Amino acid sequence: MTEPNPRDQLLTRPAAEPLPTPLDPSGPAARGLPADPKPVPERGQGDPDERNPAPSDVDRSA
């Protein structure tokens, strides 16, 4: 087998895994939160303790 080209010995090969990236200090992941949190519904839409109207009373006509 022939000797490798000296120019090839100067080139670095990228690793299979990506380089680690630092967390954005102002981002939600740095504070331990999910990246896309579920929005909190308005009162009465999903709160089981809400009474105006109660969640089970939505389909009843006035």
Descriptive report:
With 62 residues, the chain is largely without helices or strands. The chain is 8% helix and 0% strand. It has 1 helix and no strands. The longest helix is centred in the first third of the chain and has 5 residues. The radius of gyration is 28 Å and the shape is rod-shaped.
Write the layout of secondary structure elements.
Layout: H1 6-10
Order of helices and strands: H
| Overall average pLDDT | 69
Rounded to the nearest angstrom, the distance between the terminal CA atoms is 89 Å
Proportion of β residues? Answer: under 5%
Instruction: Kindly state the number of beta strands.
Output: 0
Assembly classification? single chain
Q: Count of DSSP helices?
A: 1
Q: Report the helical percentage.
A: under 10%
Counting helices, strands and paired strands, the structural category is little secondary structure
Rg from alpha-carbon coordinates: 28 Å
Uncertain regions spanning at least 5 consecutive residues: none
Biggest sheet details: none
Shape: rod-shaped
Region (Disordered): 1-62
Biased composition (Basic and acidic residues): 39-62
